[in-house]
Amino acid sequence: MTQALHELVTFDEFIEWYPNNGKRYELHRGVIVEMPPPTGEHEKVLGFIARKLTVEFDRLNLPYTIPKTAFVKTPSAESSYSPDVLLLNLDNLGNEPLFQKQSTVTQAASVPLVVEVVSTNWRDDYYSKLGDYEEMGIPEYWIADYAALGARKFIGNPKQPTIFVCQLVDGEYQMTPFQGNAAIASPTFPELKLTAQQIFDAAKY
């Protein structure tokens, strides 16, 4: 699909068009966006976070899973994201009208936690996705800025690698930053033993 400058695409058109060419695409407010190829460091951080969360929900015997590829469709239906780490609640997937055929969730009850590992398009994670996940009502959203790419107003001056845990409180995200050896406080996994530095170090090894 060659997208005209002013022609917006619906979610159904996006899903029907989606090519099997090894590239990743998202729908941002009706515009198809090709996601930049991930770096090795990005993939190591993503994998480390997914492993730590998997160990924790397995230990607690919770009905969760982390799919390889799935979409989160926002309430406005103008955006469809494929998060870096998407924690799904298996108990609610039967209520999802699009999951069986399109691997897409639309309900906050299906998503206890979502993680975006920040890359060069950091504004998407700090602004667009934060607002859309907030609107959807996803209770917990992590922004893993291991390479300190975000704006100084978020991560300080000089910039510091930071993990933000955004917790939904009265319909709005409260952003709590974690740096260095600070233990990450997760509302979904209050017993999680993980520091920000462990996530940053995952990019190196």
UniProtKB/TrEMBL annotation:
Family matches, as InterPro entries: Nuclease_put_TT1808, Restrct_endonuc-II-like, Uma2
Membrane-spanning segments: none
Q: Which residues form the Putative restriction endonuclease domain?
A: 11-196
Q: Which domain of life is it from?
A: Bacteria
Entry-linked Pfam families? Uma2 (PF05685)
- Chain coiled-coil ranges: none
Q: Which SUPFAM superfamilies match?
A: Restriction endonuclease-like
Its protein name is Putative restriction endonuclease domain-containing protein
**What is the source species?**
Nostoc minutum NIES-26
Q: What is the lineage of its organism?
A: Bacteria, Bacillati, Cyanobacteriota, Cyanophyceae, Nostocales
